[in-house]
Amino acid sequence: MSEGTLYDKVWNRHKVTTLPNGQDQLFVGLHLIHEVTSPQAFGMLRERDLEVARSDLTHATVDHIVPTADQSRPYSDDAAEEMMSELEENVRDAGIEFNDPTTGNQGIVHVIGPEQGITQPGKTIVCGDSHTSTHGAFGALAFGIGTSQIRDVLATQTVAMEKQQVRKIQVDGELGEGVEAKDIVLEIIRRLGTEGGVGYVYEYAGEAIEDLGMEGRMSICNMSIEGGARAGYVNPDGTTYDWLRETDYFQEHPEEFDELMPYWESIRSDDDAEYDDVVTIDASELDPVVTWGTTPGQGVGIHDPIPEPEALAADKQDTARRAQKHMRVEPGETMAGYDIDVAFLGSCTNARLPDLRRAARVVKGREVADDVRAFVVPGSQRVQRAAEAEGLADIFREAGFDWRNAGCSMCLGMNEDQLEGDEACASSSNRNFVGRQGSKDGRTVLMNPRMVAAAAVTGEVTDVRDLREVTIA
Amino acid sequence: MSDPTEEIPEVDHVTGTGIPVRGNDIDTDQIIPARFMKVVTFDGLGQFSFFDLRFDDDDNEKDHPMNEERFGDANVMVVNNNFGCGSSREHAPQALMRWGIDALIGEGFAEIFAGNCLALGIPTLTADHETINDLQQWVDDNPDGEIEIDVAAETVRYGGREVGVTVDDAQRKALVDGIWDTTALMKANERSIAETAANLPYATGN
Ligand code: SF4
């Protein structure tokens, strides 16, 4: 069993007791809720005549079903309007802060927590959403939970869990020009498999991780769950503290920043911490990674051949064959040159300001290819405002992109943004499952945001490094 | 509350009539199609159980035991292998429970599905192919016949005979001891929760 890691320390600090069923009861420092998974849990509370225990530690947003084009109420989709109204009523009754679109703070749940400074090192954070692992970038212990667990947290501010093992993923070396955090995590999942992390929490460490800004660390922690790990984290450091200092929370409570620093430093993994497993990756060897199949683990370097199913592990061959048929790709070919119909820049993996900045640099002075529909969905209203103020929105619009309001959008196609028929989509999101983007015949190719920009302007999967970049003055 | 076990019903026996749903690898998308997840409560989900297997595109009834009046009051579902595979949606057992199911007996269940059932106090009992086949046949012939499940003893009695079934140890303990409901278990520890919160350095004060 691991010892002396951030995971062990934060777990122990939050452990209330061991339950008779063998699980540990953990105190939850921050509970984030959204419109899709919380209403049933509120319903269960009502059935049992229970109240929300700690509305002060609960924050709500609306993201999955929110329209990103016309947001006037009532929403044109009745089901979406009903979900929104239900959330409004639940948070009003319980006195929970709701970052609805009128506040200017609305956005994807995993974008707004870090933005506002309520995502902090050494906190336990839960949300009824598997990508809650994102918040681990700040050295928080953050994981997605199911509906009955949401009910538990609402009623008690605690959650019942079994402790997992810790795998350190040491990413050495420096990333090459044009290669990003997203490529690191796609490579990790490609190597370890989509179930490789089951039973583990991932600690990301090493030079390449330390060199990343908070946004890059979030992209990596975000996709821990695609590798089977329920949570992933990075030890807090100067980069983390610089981000936190600028947030609303610590601007309003500057004294707390100094008070909390010793705690943050104390929960960092010890130099001699013990891990259940260690995996090492050399970042300097990476090219941009794109997916060729229908799981996030089916990735390949942009210039490497798509694998022969027979060359894969026995239990992967069937899925690979089916995926290649669905995607209409041939083993031996590369993904470069794969025609796309849609370019989607968005999601909690890659729709933060630096992502949009880098993509805009590729797009500037170019035009979206004929027959490609391209759109940008910022991760939050703050990202949207900042990007508009910097002129990024204009660059995208001039190139022929649709500039939208914040939400999950085509990451999962629960609003009107969906693939149609067998369209192929270059996407900065995190899941390429069959049907994920709203059409059962749709084809999703996951990649980093600059690669999405490159695909949008060329109409095909393209190594962004082959395009000359235009610098924004 | 001090003794959490006072709050959680012990599920040591389930008695009622059966409904056979045949087939291996019935996934959660079949149990409750994804489009019915765009809802704010589990309440109305019961009527959408197995919807696409029960109705065609024009909402005409198809052949399915859930459409048969004689099984309308059943509360024990008898299924085959790997039942409930696919996504982790809790909507699946919720839909079955709200249709009226209190227990499932089958050749095998997907792990997450069984876990979600446990969170609702629904036992998932397993037996070999032959035992299940016989039981399904008997239920077909005796839709009003009583089935008696003893979770602790791992037996099922029906039509004058008794057969052995298996329940996962942890699940059996949780159901029989009445410790399957984590909300009640944890709510009982309110004082320790407050102490843990008070010892955290970040702001958790009310
Ligand atoms: S952006 Fe996609 S992955 Fe992220 S929370 Fe929304 S739907 Fe989930």
From TrEMBL, chain A:
One of its GO terms (molecular function) is 3-isopropylmalate dehydratase activity. Binds 1 [4Fe-4S] cluster per subunit. Its EC number is 4.2.1.33. GO terms for biological process: L-leucine biosynthetic process. Pathway: Amino-acid biosynthesis; L-leucine biosynthesis; L-leucine from 3-methyl-2-oxobutanoate: step 2/4. InterPro entries: 3-IsopropMal_deHydase_lsu, Acnase/IPM_dHydase_lsu_aba_1/3, Acoase/IPM_deHydtase_lsu_aba, Aconitase_4Fe-4S_BS, Aconitase_4Fe-4S_dom, IPM_dehydratase_rel_enz, IPMI_cat. Pfam families: Aconitase. It is an enzyme of class 4 (lyase). Keywords: 4Fe-4S, Amino-acid biosynthesis, Branched-chain amino acid biosynthesis, Iron, Iron-sulfur, Leucine biosynthesis, Lyase, Metal-binding. The keyword Cell wall biogenesis/degradation does not apply. It catalyses: (2R,3S)-3-isopropylmalate = (2S)-2-isopropylmalate. Its cofactor is [4Fe-4S] cluster. Transmembrane segments: none annotated. Residues 8-459 form the Aconitase/3-isopropylmalate dehydratase large subunit alpha/beta/alpha domain. [4Fe-4S] cluster binds at residues 348, 408, 411. The keyword Cell membrane does not apply. Heterodimer of LeuC and LeuD. Catalyzes the isomerization between 2-isopropylmalate and 3-isopropylmalate, via the formation of 2-isopropylmaleate. Belongs to the aconitase/IPM isomerase family. LeuC type 1 subfamily. PANTHER family: 3-ISOPROPYLMALATE DEHYDRATASE, HOMOACONITASE, MITOCHONDRIAL-RELATED. HAMAP family: LeuC_type1. This is 3-isopropylmalate dehydratase large subunit. It comes from Haloglomus irregulare.
TrEMBL record, chain B:
Residues 1-22 are annotated as: Disordered. GO terms for biological process: L-leucine biosynthetic process. Its EC number is 4.2.1.33. The keyword DNA-binding does not apply. GO terms for molecular function: 3-isopropylmalate dehydratase activity. The keyword Amino-acid biosynthesis applies. InterPro entries: 3-IsopropMal_deHydase_ssu, Aconitase/3IPM_dehydase_swvl, AconitaseA/IPMdHydase_ssu_swvl, IPMI_Swivel, LeuD. It comes from the Archaea. It catalyses: (2R,3S)-3-isopropylmalate = (2S)-2-isopropylmalate. Pathway: Amino-acid biosynthesis; L-leucine biosynthesis; L-leucine from 3-methyl-2-oxobutanoate: step 2/4. Residues 13-127 form the Aconitase A/isopropylmalate dehydratase small subunit swivel domain. Gene3D superfamilies: Aconitase, domain 4. GO terms for cellular component: 3-isopropylmalate dehydratase complex. Pfam families: Aconitase_C. NCBIfam families: leuD, PRK01641.1. Heterodimer of LeuC and LeuD. Catalyzes the isomerization between 2-isopropylmalate and 3-isopropylmalate, via the formation of 2-isopropylmaleate. Belongs to the LeuD family. LeuD type 2 subfamily. This is 3-isopropylmalate dehydratase. It comes from Haloglomus irregulare. The gene is leuD.
